[in-house]
Every structure is written in structure tokens, then in C-alpha cells.
Amino acid sequence: MRILLVEDEKKVAAFIKKGLMEEFYTVDVAVEGEDGLFMATNAEYDLIILDVMLPDMNGIDICREIRKQNIKTPVMMLTAVDATESKVEGLDSGADDYVTKPFSFDEFLARVRSLLRRPSSSESSLKVKDLTLDPVKHEVYRAGKKVDLTWKEFALLEYMIRNKGRVLSRTRIFENIWGYDVETSSNIVDVYVSYLRDKVDKHVSPKLIHTVRGVGYILRED
Ligand code: CA
What distance in angstroms lies between residue 7's CA and the mean position of ligand 1's atoms? Predict the structure, then answer.
């Protein structure tokens, strides 16, 4: 499950991202409203979380624009404690729920889960050739055989499948799967891609994971 978080306060964004990643969600963060709107309208997400107060563009306007473009992804607003008006406005703009800052992470997660259970975001398996990934059951099959993956390997494979046909730089992969984890070096991407290849591509053809020299990796069908 992939979540877009638009939040300008970097500490808050890092905190939410970390918490969501611990629950095995893949999280993209935009710190500027305009970037957030671009990502929301150009990539596929299962949930969009919008901070209302952003320096360049307000979360409510972003939500309106998303709905105007007929994107039905569930939207959660993050509002300030005393902003009653923005809650009403947020829901009017097409948001599905809102959470008031500061919030307990448990409550926040419960809301996230409930939004992701909505029928509009229910999703069948992702398929590339004979590789199947079920994001709900967390199961992967290649050539009819079940593949056991660790959570990080699963998140990496899900990310690559959702971006199939796109060249993904190491940095981009690293930020999406590991977040702002300063303890880890981005070489870990190469390590995990090699684990994945062993489990998903070895002794099977066609190979799906390819190296793009000097840049990163791509998952593609041919
Ligand atoms: Ca803010």
C-alpha cells in the first residue's frame, strides 16, 4: 500500500513516515504543496494525507484540485487544533477524514486503516508476467510458486512493480523504502535488489529486474 504525505514540517513528516513504514506502508513525502499536487495527480496512491497549512498552497485547495481531476483516492487532512473552519472546509473539498494535530499515533493509524479498507481503494493483485504480488495478503508468487520475502524485500518489490517500466534511481528507491534513515547507506538498495533477484528472478525467465548502469534499476516485462 502506497501513501502520499504532504507535510511541510520535516520533523512531523519524518515521524509520520517512520511510523507508517513500521506498519509496512510505502510512503512518499512532499514538503511543498505544489510537489504534493503533482505527485497526487501523476502517481497512484492508496491514500493521500494532506496537511492543511502549507507555505505555498493550502491542503484544501490541493484536495479540491485532486477531486476536480476525478481522482478518487481517499484523502485525510491534518488540521491544527483550533481550526474548526478548516475541518468543515476540508470535508467540503472532498476529503474523507481529518485528524487534528497533535494526534496519538494509534488513533492516526486506526483512521489510516479504516480509509484503506474502503471499497474504492480495494485492490486486486499486481501482476507482471507470471509474477504476482497480493498487497493485502502480502503474498508473492513467481511461475506459480510462492516466494517468501522479508518485509523490506516485499516493500521493494511492490514499489518496483507499481513503477514498472520506469527507471528508478538508487536514491529514489532508498527514500521510498528506507525513508530518512541516516543510519543506513544507500548501498543497501543494491544489497536488497540482489536478494530480490535471487528470490524472484533466479532460474526463471524472463528476468524482470534489470540494472540501469550508473542510475539504478528497472522492473520491466521484456
Ligand atoms: Ca504545516
Answer: 6
